[in-house]
Amino acid sequence: MLKRILTILWEGTIIILLVLLFIYQSITIQNLKKELSYISQEIEIIGHQVENFKKDTLADIKRDVALTNTIVELINLTVSNDTELQGMLNTLKDNIGLQRIIDQNKINTIIEDTAAKSLKNDIEEQRLSDEMKTDLKIENVEIKIENQLVSKATKLEELENNFHSTNVLISNERGWQGSGSWIKYKNKFYILSAGHMVGSDGDILYAIENEEYVCELKIIKADHKKDIALFASEDPNYIPKTYTELADEETKQGSEIYVVGNPMGIEDVISKGIIIKYRGFYCYFQDHSYFGSSGGGIYNLDGKLIGVIVHIIADNPMGIESGLPPFVVHGAVRLNMLRAFLGDIK
Q1: Three-class SS string for the chain?
Q2: Rounded distance, CA 37 to CA 31, Å?
Q3: Between the ranges 53-57, 203-207, 254-258, where is the mean pLDDT highest?
Q4: Most buried of the four, 161, 174, 178, 216, by CB within 10 Å?
Q5: 156 lies in some domain
Q6: Number of domains in the chain
Q7: What is the domain range of residue 60?
């Protein structure tokens, strides 16, 4: 009898323990379900955080995902023997994985958009920079061209002014007129002109500038063979307003030159010509010189004297009746002959 009672008590104790265990497991399951609900809420919050990615940083999202993974691993250890909870956990894992893929795609899209915008900005900045550089180069070229034109115009104006003052109208009492150029040689001032400007011994020559008498001239030296003459003022103290000097070297054939003279008594006529040939004492050029320019100077583009005009050659082999204009060439005593002519001047 006692044994029966003990058996009943033992079985009742076991039943009570089983009931208590069931109650404990029920409470545990309820708590786990609450934890799963909490985790779902956390995942929803993470989803909202990803949607507002512009306000969050990439580091924050990675930290939240890592935290979620840790929680899932803890739950996995706790409910590994419960089929229902294990199924819920698997579903939760799938949702987290899907959310992670979505989040990563969004992150990649944002990164790609950011990189594309950055590249576009770089290209636009480079394009603007290239346009600015191109515009600046064009502007600099335009400024250089303008400065060169201004410089060239200024230089030409200076040359013309110098030619006007350097050129001299030479005349005598009988009205013969010719041209000459003031030069400075060995610190003295002379007028170089054509030899045929020297008349008879009784002729009185004088210099005229701007239709006004300047000074009486005396002959220093003349070479009628080369047709070159050198004059000086009778007044040893006279200093011209402007003068020129001999060039350092002869101008090359085909080069442009300035031609200055007083054709038909018209003072300071300036024209451009071209050196076409050097022969013997002379250089030959083409321009629009005429009678009265004899003795005038021809100059290089720097305004230095390279020759003295002495004659004109005009020829028309077809005859006047052909109606064709004659071929006209002008001759000037060349620079090397001028230097030789002035060599013995002290």
Answers
A1: CHHHHHHHHHHHHHHHHHHHHHHHHHHHHHHHHHHHHHHHHHHHHHHHHHHCCCCCCHHHHHHHHHHHHHHHHHHHHHCCCCHHHHHHHHHHHHHHHHHHHHHHHHHHHHHHHHHHHHHHHHHHHHHHHHHHHHHHHHHHHHHHHHHHHHHHHHHHHHHHHHHHHHEEEEEECCCCEEEEEEEEECCEEEEEEEHHHCCCCCCCEEEEECCEEEEEEEEEEEECCCCEEEEEECCCCCCCCCCECECCCCCCCCCEEEEEECHHHCCCEEEEEEEEEEECCEEEEECCCCCCCCCCEEECCCCCEEEEEEEEEEECCCCHHHCCCCEEEEEEEEHHHHHHHHCCCC
A2: 10
A3: 254-258
A4: 178
A5: no
A6: 1
A7: 2-81
CA angle, residues 202, 208, 211, in degrees to nearest 5: 130
> What would the pLDDT profile of 107-116 be if each residue is shown by its tens digit?
667 666 676 7
- 203 falls within a domain: no
pLDDT tens string 18-46? 666 667 666 666 766 676 677 667 667 76
Q: Is residue 76 part of a domain?
A: yes
Within 8 A by CB and 6+ apart from 90, the residues are: none
The one-letter amino acid at 79: V
Asked whether the beta carbons of 290 and 263 are under 8 A apart, the reply is yes
Which two three-digit tokens encode residue 21?
């265990």
Q: In this structure, is residue 220 part of a structural domain? A: no
